[in-house]
Structure formats: structure tokens, C-alpha cells
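Proteins fold reproducibly. Look at a concrete instance:
___
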Amino acid sequence: MGEKITFKRLDGKECSGYYAEPDAGSGTPGVIVIQEWWGLNDQIKGVADRLAESGYRALVPDLYRGNVTLDAAEAEHMMSDLDFADAATQDIRSAVRYLKASSPKVAVLGYCMGGALAVLAAVYVGEADAVVCWYGVPPEEAADTRKIGVPFQGHFALEDSSFPPVQVDALEDKLREGGVEYEFYRYRARHAFGNENNEDYAPEATKLAWRRTLGFLAERIG
């Protein structure tokens, strides 16, 4: 369904990505999808395709510049080499601006590593109209999440060893302190429960979280 495209970053450099468009065309609302630590693989492209089937333009910026892996150790290494500030303020922000050239509103949706980046985008990407995070929390020092100024939705696992509930609770405390418009959902599941290629995939939790995500997007960006 989708295709590879290239767009300009704010600093003049180029970033490529996977783009999927609904039958309604390029004037529909958009969603920037942020990858897990595996890279821009077929699974995350599938998320973009599903969004297109639901009526949204979807763009997955290639944060790893073509690198993809199935090995957890290699994925961790690639994630540790990623400049999160650059990814949020250049790749993701520029992707939002790219879709906004013809889309009325654009949201950001991220998973795992991409979920943490979605939180950063909620702070640093003022052009975004809404943000959805699936099980990802950045370090507290990475951003003052009390300053989030867009509607925010979070989906988290109660048995998550990567982003444990105490970390999620701390994030929620910050959002509440800042008066952020948010909604959090917690599921009796493990980390990355929404990835059908993951051993901890939880289909019922995923189905519910996806329905809530689509409802939130419909309400916030149309």
C-alpha cells in the first residue's frame, strides 16, 4: 500500500520514510508513526497501512537511516546510538510539517522507543495536534512533560520490565501537575504487547488499545 518518500528536515538535510495514503487522498488528517527499536520494518509499516485504511495519511520517518534488525542486542545498540533530541526536533518535527503542508491536522503515534520519542514530540514539536504513546517513557531529564500543550493519550503495560509502572506513574504525576489534557490506559500485559511479532503479544489488549487510539484520533484530528 505504501511507498518510500523523502522529505526535507528543518536543517536542510533529508530524511526518508514510509508513506501510506488513504483512498480519500492527500487532504486527510495525518499521523506520524514512530518505530520501535527494531527500525523501519514491515511490522511498523503495517501500522501505517492500517491507519491509511482508517482514513489517515501515515508517515514513518526512518530514524535509523535504513538499518533494520531482528536481534535485540543490535537493536539496543542502534537505539543507544540514536540522537533522541535530533530525532524529535528534526526528523519527527519535519515529518509533521511535511504532512501539514496539505493535512489540516497531524498527530504523532509511537511504540516502545517510538513511544518515548512521542512524549518528547509532545513537548518539543509545537506543530503536532495530538500525541499517542504506546509503552514508552523518556528519562525525566529529557523533557519537562508538564509543558505538554497538546492532547495526549498513553497505553501502558502493568507487567512491563522496560518501562515499569512506577515510571509511568511518575509521568502521569508530571502531566497532572502541568494541567496537561491526557488519558492513560493500563493493560494486564507485558512490554510491546501491541507488536504481533513479539512473544508477549496480547491480542485482546491490542484490540482495545487500537480502538481507543482510533477514537482519540477521530476526536482530536478528525
Notes: Residues 145 and 171 are 7 Å apart (CA to CA). Strands lie at 3-8, 14-20, 30-34, 57-61, 106-111, 130-134, 152-159, 182-190. The chain has one domain: 3-220. Residues 203-220 form the longest helix (18 residues).
